[in-house]
Amino acid sequence: MNVKTKSFIVRILKYPAILILFLCFYSRINYDSVINPDYDNYQSDYRNANWSYEIGYEYISHIFRDYLNFSFVDFWSVLIIFQLILLSIIYRRGLEAIFCLPNLFLMSEYFYGTTVRYSLGCLILLLAVRENKLRLLKYPSPLLHYGLFIILFLDLVKSRISKLIINNNLMKQMLFFLAMIFCGVFSGLIVNILIPYTRFSYYASSFYLESKSISSLIYIILVFYLIILGGKIKNSLFDDSIVLLSLCTISFCLVTSGVAVLSGRTFQFFLLLEPILINHFLNVKKTRIIGFLLLILSISKLVLYLI
User: Fold this and answer.
1) 266, 272, 240, 262: CA torsion to nearest 10
2) How confident is the model at residue 84 (pLDDT cuts 50, 70, 90)?
């Protein structure tokens, strides 16, 4: 058996193996509906055809409810399985499937099993970013959850924003970083002043507008500087769309750290990027240590959760 044949067989067998691995998380994602804060709302919307969510999600619901005659329980299972299929496609390169396990465990309930519109939209957008042939899929992804307009915007301007962050002048770089910290501190104050005058007034004084915790902020800052350092060591990494989007996303998390709902949503998308980012840095000899440090940070979240 020649090398090409062996390589082909490995590629063929690798995808189902990854899918089977991820399907082991099905029961954790499809956790008890009694304690799922969003399950009843989704169920009511589906059964009564309320059309109260984004148009993209509602049309998917419409097809399964009115044409395929799926019960809500079956529809919910389809959404979860489809997410796991998307994950197995996205993380099929290198050791990405292994690197994503800590985040998959942590995000199973509150992300994949609760905020299904946002998680599904994030996965479709990420798949479109990774696969050039599917790049047009990124544009309708916000129709599943309007919060994805932020991620789509960051993807479209990632090169320009990254040029502002990646600056060879140390003084300018420090000033830009301090400006981001300043925005993070005052973003919550500004939003709290403005939000009572918008249709999102119900968020006022809620935990959604609280600042990120100190531990989360430290994590974001460490990741931010590790990405910068990795790019300084190997400049060609800044030509990679995933690295640039990761840098843009984590920077936005820092800038909006004063508003949990903005920073938190964006950070969730970054956690999807993280396994790919780790794999990128580990694959380059000069930045392997950066990759290991990012991997340690990723695992540390799981360790702290389990303690």
Assistant:
1) 0
2) very high
Higher pLDDT among residues 292 and 239, named by residue? 292
Six-digit token string for 282: 């580990």
Task: Say if residue 283's pLDDT is above 90.
Answer: yes
- CA distances (Å), origin 16, targets 97, 111, 149, 278: 12, 24, 32, 23
Q: What is the pTM of this model?
A: 0.89
Pull the structure tokens for residue 301. 């979240």
Higher model confidence: residue 174 or residue 62? 62
Q: Tell me the pLDDT band of 160, cut-offs 50, 70 and 90.
A: confident
Kindly tell me if the per-residue pLDDT of 186 is higher than 70. no
- Shortest CA distance to 229 belongs to which of 295, 290, 158, 273? 290
Question: Poorest-confidence range of 6-15, 264-273, 295-304?
Answer: 6-15
